Amino acid sequence: MKEIKISLLFALIAISFFTNSQAQSNLITNVLNRKTISLNGIWQYIIDPYETGFYDYRREERNVNDREAYWNTEKFDNKTDRKEFGFTDKYAIKVPGDWNSQADKFMYYEGTVWYKKSFDVDLGTSSERIFLHFGAVNYRADVYLNGKKLGMHKGGFTAFNFEIPSKLLQAKGNFLVVKVDNKRSIDEIPTINTDWWNYGGITRDVNLVFVPQDFVQDYSLQLAKGSYANKAKTIEGWLKLNRKGQEKVTLEIPELKIKRELTVIGDSVAFNVKSSTIRLWSPKSPKLYQVIISTKNEKIVDKIGFRNIEIQAGKLILNGKPVFLRGISVHEEIPDQVRRAYSDQDAQHLLGQAKELNANMVRLAHYPHNEYMTRAADSLGIMVWSEIPVYWTIDFKSADVLAKAKTQLEEMITRDRNRASIIIWSVGNETPVNADRTLFMSKLVKKAKEMDQSRIVAAALESFGIQGVQTIEDPLGEFTDVVAVNQYIGWYGGLPDNSRKVSWATKFDKPIFFSETGAEGFSGFHADSLTRYSEEFQEWYYREQVGMFKRMPANFAGLSPWILNDFRSPRRNHPIYQEGWNNKGLFDHNGKKKKAFYVLKAYYDEMEKLYD
Ligand code: GCB
User: Fold this and answer.
1) How far is the CA of 26 from the CAs of 22, 211, 264, 415, in angstroms?
2) Which CATH number do you get for residue 332?
3) Which of 109, 325, 334, 361 is most deeply packed, by most CB within 10 A?
């Protein structure tokens, strides 16, 4: 009996350790400003739909030294060797970048592709620890360096890193092999059913990150809630070392003449500092401050803005004033090159288009976008809604799926919690109303709030209409801070003028936000406004919608229509007007503005005047 008790206790400890360690992100933040060596560039690849490089003929995962495992590529070189694979420059691919856009044979491919990069690295004499950091790989990455497995990561839109064991990396002749698998799966996030292209590959930057033995892994600096109204405002935060050990840390914000010595106890320290000269971040004045965090061995520099976002009496309030979100939804895609966006240049382009529309906000749909995007939003003064791909109907009953969603949420918040532009974390989109789903989603809301009390938590919900009244009653609305709803009155039901008869009601005393609304318009197709898919139909839709926006209740806080650009989607198979594209963009495949663009822009110009 006693033995049973002990082993039960052990099992409980093990379970709790496992759950905690799953929930603990070891992500190093602010990689863009750390000491790094980029592994971007040309990699070699092998397409492996049968996963031969990973499984043997009994479908067992290959042993680490198996000479037929594709990660052991350089090891066997005798002329007697039988070798049935090999990497070659003949099959080369660009990283970062999705594979689909890089060769015709990849366009519809979903499955495994092996990537290989050979490199030398100047290791000097330093005793630094080295991590291998990926901005994102869609969807599953199994990572091997010099034949040794570093780890596996799932989730196509979040960053991750693995520590490289000491001595594994050599000055010369390293080879990094990544098995990338973008197969859709029913128990993953997103699940098999979405309305976007499942671009596969190493879609974001790859870096070696060099850090001291004890280093600052992560930190948070925010304006303390409510302190925006005080003369002396408070910045509060914490920082976390990678491992326990006493350490002195200096926090500086030179422009505010702040310099504070902190003593870390255990692995973290909390702090608050006051200043009466802080200029708050806002879209009109996106002020960022240089923040320097240093220990005896390292110096981390970041640029951080301070602002306050909250809800008061059903209104959305930025720095003490009501704000109207003139938003637009954006996919992480560059349509004229039919590829994923991944660079600062791409971010400037997409956010530049949003600026042309006079938007002050973007909804980064439906997954966390790359870090250039949120950093560019910080400096351009564009508020951001950032979301995890809990989309439509995933397996809400599964604890395993919930754990995956939580991990993605945690990875999203960890990377970006110092971006002032981000005002909303979204835990999902158009999930079906039922008890399992509401419980699942409420746990995500709870987790987001535990991790970050300085922002608003939302989910894109649905409404239903009876006799001209469009009602938002989704029980998930109890948990979220705003009631965000996607509506397509006049596109997915009836004609655009249907919205004339509609009034909106919700039982929640919270801001209402239209997280989507839109209609397709095939660029260059001109007809009368009743002709679906014409630019005139789309223009009419927007005109009618604007009429409805103007009749919204006082707690209407803004919108992020669907969508900035036309985007690829395998669901869209009209042989003339779609051909694999969802054409609800205000800009077409080639970046040309459609007629509807000007209708929304005129509305945003008016709203800007009303609120400023
Ligand atoms: C939606 C989805 C979005 C789709 C859009 C559409 O409600 O959230 O991902 O692309 O509608 O075009 O139907």
Assistant:
1) 10, 14, 18, 11
2) 3.20.20.80
3) 325
ipTM of the complex: 1.00
Is residue 220 assigned to a domain?
Answer: no
State pLDDT tens for residues 561-588: 999 999 999 999 999 999 999 999 999 9
Torsion of CA 411, 415, 420, 422, to 10 degrees: -40
Same domain (yes/no): 296, 397: no
Query: Containing H/E element for 548?
Result: helix 535-549
Binding site membership of 112 for ligand 1 (Cβ less than 6 Å): no
Question: Has residue 561 been placed in a domain?
Answer: yes
Region 109-127: mean pLDDT is 93
* Contact residues for 285 (Cβ-Cβ < 8 A; gap 6+): 279, 381
Residues 343 and 429 in one domain: yes
Whole domain around residue 558: which residue ranges? 311-611
Residue 100 confidence (pLDDT): 98
Does the pLDDT of residue 19 top 60, yes or no? no
Rg (the chain; Cα; Å): 25
Last residue of a domain, one of 261, 288, 307: 307
Looking at ligand 1, which atom is closest to the CA of residue 392?
Answer: 8
Of 60, 48, 227, 36, nearest in space to 135 by CA: 36
pLDDT at 1: 35
Residue 486 Cβ inside 6 Å of ligand 1? The answer reads yes
Question: What is the structure's pLDDT at 78?
Answer: 79
Give residue 74's pLDDT band: very low, low, confident or very high (50, 70, 90): low
Determine the distance separating the centroid of ligand 1 and the alpha carbon of 340, expressed in angstroms: 18
Same domain, 261 and 341: no
Ramachandran quadrant class, 331 (left: phi over 0; alpha: psi -120 to 50; beta: rest): beta
